[in-house]
Amino acid sequence: MKNLDNIQWILIALILLMSIGATAQDPKRFQKSIDELVTKEYNFDTGKELVVFSGSSSIKLWKDVDTVYPEYNVVNNGFGGSHFSDLIYYYNEVIVRPQPDILFIYEGDNDVASGKKATDIIKEARQLIKQIKKDLPDTRIIIISVKPSVARKEFKAEYIKLNRLLEKLAKRTKGVEFADVWNAMVDQNGDVYTDIFVDDNLHLNKKGYKIWAEVIGKHLPKSSVDK
């Protein structure tokens, strides 16, 4: 019986390890993308505040974000497929190095889709925000809510839970705001609009980014997007 019990415990341990491995990712897979971000050159206007957008592919693919907010100097430091853990790993390169006056963060979308729970994701979000507040105390931080999408509709409940936790984190932390793109992307029944995505039904098209621009513009007082 003891041998049987030992085998059972070994099997349980293996299952747990496999489960962890399924959601764990090697952040070094982004090294090339990060190197490109770090070496990119900008021709900024003096006197304008620096706005940095960081996060996963929904940020990376917002190609014209710099022209959307001409009142600001804008850096797009998105790298597709990233999680909160990846943003933490490349924290110095993506966030500290540019020294933003205003920082937007979009993460959590891929985290949930990979099987992570909202309660675990929020721990990493807290860790990241705490470090930013320590290193860049004068930087305004805006957390962008996880977006809804047709392709990942099965994760809707967990996304909503994560957004509630992210909003609560923002409300409880001085200098941190919450940009709610979720509710701007759904109809009165809570169903996501289907005409705001490209063919993969996950990433945004021009109409989708127009919605984002209006929501995010409300957190940029000099912006004329929402006026």
Structure class: alpha/beta
How big a fraction of the residues is strand? 5-15%
How many β-strand runs?
5
Overall mean pLDDT: 91
SSE inventory with pairings:
Elements: H1 2-23, H2 31-39, E1 50-55, H3 57-60, H4 65-68, E2 73-78, H5 84-89, H6 91-96, E3 102-106, H7 109-113, H8 118-135, E4 140-144, H9 156-172, E5 176-179, H10 206-217
Parallel strand pairs: 1-2, 1-3, 3-4, 4-5
Helix pairs in contact: 8-9
Briefly characterize the structure.
With 227 residues, the chain is α/β, with parallel strands linked by helices.
Description:
The protein has a 5-stranded parallel sheet with strand order 2-1-3-4-5. The termini are far apart. With 227 residues, it is of the alpha/beta class. It has a single domain (28-217), classed as SGNH hydrolase (Rossmann fold), CATH 3.40.50. Helix 9 (156-172) links the parallel strand 4 (140-144) and strand 5 (176-179). The protein has helices spanning 2-23, 31-39, 57-60, 65-68, 84-89, 91-96, 109-113, 118-135, 156-172, 206-217, and strands at 50-55, 73-78, 102-106, 140-144, 176-179. It is built from 10 helices and 5 strands, in the order H-H-E-H-H-E-H-H-E-H-H-E-H-E-H. The model is unreliable at 11-23 (pLDDT under 50).
